[in-house]
Automatic annotation (TrEMBL):
Organism for this UniProt entry: Pediococcus parvulus
Residue ranges of the TM segments: none
SUPFAM superfamilies membership: (Trans)glycosidases
MF (Gene Ontology): beta-glucosidase activity
GO aspect biological process, one term: carbohydrate catabolic process
Protein name: 6-phospho-beta-glucosidase
Amino acid sequence: MTTEFPKNFLWGGATAANQIEGAWDVDGKGVSVQDLLTGGTVDKPRHFTAKVDPDAYYPSHTASDFYHHYKEDIKLLAEMGFKVYRLSINWTRIFPNGDDEKPNQAGIDFYHKVFQECHKYGIEPLVTISHYEVPYHLTAAYGGFSSRKVIDFFENYCRVLFESYKDEVHLWLTFNEINTALMFGGGYIQAGVPVKDGSSIFDRVTKEQRQNAFQAVHNQLVASAKAVKLAHEINPENKVGCMIAGSEVYPLTPDPKDVLLAQQQTEMNNFYCGDVHVRGAYPAFAKKYWRDNDIHLEIDPSDAKTLKDGTVDFYSFSYYSSGAVTIHPEKQEKVNGNMSSGTKNPYLKYSDWGWSMDPEGLRIYLNQVYQRYQIPLMIVENGLGAYDKVEADGSINDDYRIDYLRGHVEAMKEALDDGVDLIGYTPWGCIDLASASTGQMSKRYGFIYVNRHDDQTGDYSRTPKKSFYWYKKVIESNGKEVE
């Protein structure tokens, strides 16, 4: 195969404010939905508390303390040769309550400093506007995005961002993994939909919560379209993408019923929101899904035009693992992978957290999505959460992470050869951070080790892992050197 990565390919890495920044109540920052989610494990899910419990651990409160280490961290990213750094803005740093009349200047100033530090090293910021960081006040006072009022608050927030960072940021994503509001947590984490105090993020979703989650996603799709149009008006150089939690679902057997089930799950996971973002309208299967599941959306007559006028410039997504489904219970071997639980695929290996490792699935997904949409694609999350051991000499030999990433880089090259227009790759958690699914620091993703642990000990010092130097060579060689 002679296909090479494009010369202007955007190599980099990704983080989220609530999982890396810490400093949760510093310099005027308000309380986000994440600030009320406790830590957990695979066996003990994270829980929502209506107010902070002084005896509980909240990962977002401290995280990796990027707030005070951003200069050191960005310098390390530059040492790897990053072309782009995907990060998110914490909404409550800009508008502490979400519906404030005026923004918090200290929050605006912080991100100015972060972006300026990126540009100092020639790193382009790719900024997610809402990455699981809805202001909790919007949840308590309005019901989160289940209320159309929050669309206006989001648009106001976007206007402040686009105007404040007009000369510093030209790549934007609206809502992180917008489709996850329909998958778990009743829409609380992704869209700020209210849930019962003490509930787990993996509790069974009630009919009312499911209805609210679908309404919230519709309102977010409208808000996203308004943001795209606004971004283009304020600066025509702005490029705005969607962000989908990508998943490849296989039929476990050749039974046509398994094939149909896999197809239906794939459509809902990948195209329900994707079609609205890219094509400006819901897919054909949406109305049947609403009818079959007793979903009743309040859709304003103006929404159709708003969605059509606010389509995205590129399609970005996360990809970690694939799933398998079957109607035959006797053939099932269950696997618990937090967000990717289901039927075990006998042809794949699994991580310590029960996530399948399937680079070939990434190639399949890339082809599937590109053939449907024919717009540039970007992989903005992909990585392996694993336990890392610090050796006596201080080194961290994470060959398992290198193996995982190597397979996916090779799959990307195959997809390019297939004709896919792939423009960038930002592996998840390029710096160790608190896991979204469990809140654990011990579930590490980064090229850079952060000395912070689940028992809240550690001095936050940073240490490059073996994968740091491997990825540096990958970037230097533009994907040619992956061994």
